[in-house]
Amino acid sequence: MFNLRRSQFIQNNSPDETAYFQMLLNRESITNSVVMIQPSLLSYSFNSPPAPALLDVASISADHILLLDAYFSIVIFHGMTIAQWRNMGYQNQPEHQAFSQLLQAPQDDAQMIIRDRFPVPRLVICDQHGSQARFLLVKLNPSSTYNSAHEVVPGGDVIFTDDVSLQVFSEHLQRLAVQ
């Protein structure tokens, strides 16, 4: 319910767009419909194979690449350190073959998702603190915001929003259910 209220099905769209998104929601399989409501997030790093990550701002790390599948858009998000290494061209050097493979893995997975989906999702490739990072940040749980920045881990990120986190939302629902 937390993700549904923040999705394109409820807010920030014209009536035509809302009708279009709801028509696709009704037409798709259950798996795809769940991805429309609650996107999936994969984390890529040197230390482990690709693994599911929490849909939370705490999943952002300077040395990770995140792949967000929100059905209508696919976002490849490079952490700050990864983006700096990529911009310096380390992936083109033979001694950094592992880094080249790390950069290529989310690209391959994104292309596989895009190839199998209709309508074709928009592919967004972005870096931490870049202008396109908003496509990822808007889908994440704002557990660390500008007014609770004491919880930020080094290399992490904050979301500049007044929206409530999943924890606050759940606590409010619990209070309403008890009353």
TrEMBL record:
Single annotated GO MF: metal ion binding
Gene3D superfamilies for this protein: Sec23/Sec24 helical domain (1.20.120.730), Severin (3.40.20.10)
Keyword Acyltransferase: no
Keywords, in A-Z order: Cytoplasm, Cytoplasmic vesicle, Endoplasmic reticulum, ER-Golgi transport, Membrane, Metal-binding, Protein transport, Transport, Zinc
Listed transmembrane segments: none
Biological process annotations from GO: COPII-coated vesicle cargo loading; intracellular protein transport
Places the protein is found: Cytoplasmic vesicle, COPII-coated vesicle membrane; Endoplasmic reticulum membrane
Residue ranges occupied by any Gelsolin-like domain in the UniProt entry: 49-136
Membrane topology, record value: Peripheral membrane protein
Keyword Membrane: yes
Superkingdom to which the source organism belongs: Eukaryota
Cellular component, GO, one term: endoplasmic reticulum membrane
Function description: Component of the coat protein complex II (COPII) which promotes the formation of transport vesicles from the endoplasmic reticulum (ER). The coat has two main functions, the physical deformation of the endoplasmic reticulum membrane into vesicles and the selection of cargo molecules.
Similarity remark: Belongs to the SEC23/SEC24 family. SEC23 subfamily.
Full protein name: Protein transport protein SEC23
Organism: Ensete ventricosum (Abyssinian banana)
